[in-house]
Structure prediction request, 275 residues.
Amino acid sequence: MKEAGRQEAKAPRNAVRRQGVQECTVLSADDDIRLDRWFRRHYPGLAHASLSKLLRTGQIRLDGRRARPGDRVRSGQRIRIPPLPVEVTQAPKRERRRREAPPLSEAERQLARDMLLYEDDFVIVLNKPAGLATQGGPGITRHVDRLAVVYRRHGEDEVPRLVHRLDRDTSGVLVLARDARSAAMLARAFKGRTARKLYWALVRGVPKGMQGEISAPLAKVGGRAGERVEVSPAGKPARTVWRRLDRAGGRAAWLALEPLTGRTHQLRAHLAHIG
Prediction:
């Protein structure tokens, strides 16, 4: 049906249409995710401002009640959705580029298999090597987000998704969520600091004492050599707890580091800050 020269968006497969309005049942795969993330998943082209307006004016309802973007949906709940233009069902450019990317080579598939440490119905745990980016960007064509398709099980539509990141030059354990429900659970764990991150670092020089905390705001600064992160009063708060595990005289030390905040290049910038 055309309305004002635009086609109406196609509803999710489990939606029921009533006089141009869609009513969709939340599936178990979407259980406990935020309402705005549900829309991002099923209507990826719907802008956040447009979604907020539809919610604010009561055109979108959850089990017949007004809802907010941050409300969590539960399996079996009904979402009322007003007529929407077909453009909102189209994936954003980043996702379209991913779909249009050339197929993985056998070497890339083998790399993905070699990284696998553990998997179950909820998570995939990888041993990311140094030099491999977590996500793509300008000039970056090989990254974990692209390789994640290898971990998709037969018959599954969803590609495992990132829930946290490691710097390109950092090796370590990286966790991916099997589906949207697992992603929401893991995101809460990382945000609520119930998931602890521990890093080991070999550093030049030996910090004073056996343990301590570095609290110094960090900001991204541009320059001829490119963007870098450094301590700055104008930066965002950043905290790192460290403990000395071993030392080689006064030349080097082996440290355990636990970031209490998640700023870009936080550990490197903080260690440089204390010399």
About this structure: The first strand starts at residue 2 and ends at 3. The two ends are 66 Å apart (CA to CA). Helices lie at 35-42, 48-56, 93-100, 106-115, 144-147, 180-191, 266-273.
